[in-house]
Amino acid sequence: MTGIQSKSFDEPDEAMEFGDKGRSEIVTINDVMVVRSILEPGWSWLEHIKPTVEGLENCPLHHNEYVVSGRIRYDMADGGSVEAGAGTYLDIEPGHLASVVGDETCVLIDFAEDWGEE
């Protein structure tokens, strides 16, 4: 081995489907997990994730995320919110709701923490 490892999101280690509104593809090298989420217009955490996780009112995960394309909005449990588009990096604490904004597919790269602990 030359000290370089690579994986493709075209052949992810894991994938999660969100009905007809999107999916997340996960690749892991050593202990680093990277998630590419492709979320269609109309996708929201409340509609597409909450029904699959018992007892949670909002997302319990911490995200370090880069918006590749489209727009996404995060609403925090404490009342704060942010809308972000392509080229934006976000550090999002647990306790948020997310939803795609507009009519463009939103593609996100998430340098995930603790996704395996759900």
- The percent range for helix content is under 10%
Structural class, by secondary structure, is mainly beta
Which residues sit in consecutive blocks of at least 5 with pLDDT less than 50?
Answer: none
User: What is the terminal-to-terminal distance?
Assistant: 33 Å
Give the mean pLDDT.
91
By DSSP, the count of extended strands is 9
**If helices are DSSP runs of H or I spanning 4 or more residues, what is the number of helices?**
1
Q: What is the radius of gyration computed over CA atoms, rounded to a whole number of angstroms?
A: 14 Å
What would you say this structure looks like, in words?
With 118 residues, the protein is mainly β. It is 3% helix and 46% strand. The strands form 2 sheets. Strands 1-2-3-9-4-7 form a 6-stranded antiparallel beta sheet, with no helix packed on it. A 3-stranded antiparallel beta sheet has the order 6-5-8, with no helix packed on it. The longest helix has 4 residues, at 45-48. The chain is globular and about 50 Å long. The N and C termini lie far apart (33 Å). The model has no long low-confidence stretch (mean pLDDT 91).
